[in-house]
C-alpha cells in the first residue's frame, strides 16, 4: 500500500536509472574508442619518433575517419532519440498506473462510506440502532440455535427416530429461521437450499412460534419492560437459556442483513479483484481497513452466516476468475483473515471457529506442521 502511493516520478527514477547508467557507460566507452582510432592508426610501430613521418598520410586517414564517424554519430543520435522515447513511454505508463490507482482508492473509499451508511441505517423496532442492532440480532441467533439443538433430542424421543444432523446443519437451520423468520411463507427455491429433514423443520418452527405466543401474552407496550423467554421452560434444558427482548422476536432479518451482506461482499470483492493492487499483501492492507469497520458482533454474525447457503461464499468464492497461491478458489476467511478479530467468547455455540478453520485449511491442502502458524495469523486471540 505504501509503495502504491509513491509518485510516478520517483518510480521512474527507481526503475530506469540503473538502465540509463548502463547505457551511458556503453556510449561513453564507444566514444572513447572512436576517438582513439586516429592515434591507433598513426602508431605504425613502437618507435614514437616515426610518428612525425606519418603525418603525410593524415589527410587520407581523416577522410577515412570522416566516413567512419559520420554513420556512427548518426547511429548514436538515433539511439539517444530511442532512449528518450523509452523514458517518455515509461513515464506515460507509470502516470496511467497512478491515475488508475487513484481511481481505485476513490472508489474504495466510496464503497467503504456506503458500508458505514448501511450500518447506520440498520434498526430494530426504532429501539436498537446501528451497531446496537447487531447485538440484539446476535442474541436472537444464539437463542434460536439452542432451540433447534434441544428440539432435536425431543423430536427423536417423540418419533423414535434418530436424526443424522450435524452441528453445522443445526447452525444452518437456526440461521434460516433467524434470517427469514417463522411467519413468512417461503418459496420452494429458498427452502430447498437447506439440508434439513422437512418434518424436523416443521417441528422446530412450531416450537419457535410458541415463544412468540409467550411474548404476545406477557409483553406490554405500555410498560415497555423487556421479557425473558426461557428456553428450558419448553424443552427442559438443565441450564436455562434466556432471550431478553422488548420487540416481537423471530420475524426475520433479511430486510436488514440482505442489503448489508451484498454491499460488504461487493466491497471485499472489489479489493480482491483489483488489478491496481499487486498481489495478496497489498490487497490485505485494504481488507484490514474493511475489517476495522466490523464490530465484534458483526464478525460473529458473519461467521455463522458462512454455514448458511448464501454465506458459503466467504469460504470459497467461485464467482470470480481468481485463485489463491495454492490454486484453490479465493477464501475471504482463509486468504484474507476477514474475521481475524472475532472474539471466541461470542462463538460458544455450534462449531467452534478454530475447529472449523482447521478443517477448511486441511481441505485446501495446508500441511499439518503449518496449521498452528496459519491459525495464529487468522485469529489475533491465538497469537503469541
Describe the structure in your own words:
The protein is mostly helical and 384 residues long. The chain contains twelve helices and four strands; from the N terminus they run H-H-E-E-H-H-H-H-E-H-E-H-H-H-H-H. The protein has helices spanning 8-42, 58-121, 131-159, 167-180, 188-191, 198-218, 232-235, 254-272, 279-291, 296-305, 353-363, 368-378, and strands spanning 123-124, 128-129, 227-230, 242-245. Strands 1-2 form a two-stranded antiparallel ribbon. A two-stranded antiparallel ribbon has the order 3-4. Helix 8 runs antiparallel to helix 9 (279-291). It is elongated, with a radius of gyration of 36 Å. It starts with 7 loop residues before the first helix and ends in a 6-residue tail after the last helix. The relative contact order is 0.08.
Keywords:
384 residues; 3 domains; 3% strand; elongated
For the terminal residues, how far apart are their CA atoms?
26 Å
What is the tally of beta strands? Answer: 4
Mean pLDDT: 82
Helix content: 55-70%
What's the structural domain tally?
3
What would a concise description of this structure say?
The protein has 384 residues and is mostly helical. The chain is 61% helix and 3% strand.
What are the SSEs and their pairings?
Blueprint: H1 8-42, H2 58-121, E1 123-124, E2 128-129, H3 131-159, H4 167-180, H5 188-191, H6 198-218, E3 227-230, H7 232-235, E4 242-245, H8 254-272, H9 279-291, H10 296-305, H11 353-363, H12 368-378
Antiparallel strand pairs: 1-2, 3-4
InterPro entries: PutAbiC
Transmembrane segments: 20-43, 68-87
Keywords: Membrane, Transmembrane, Transmembrane helix
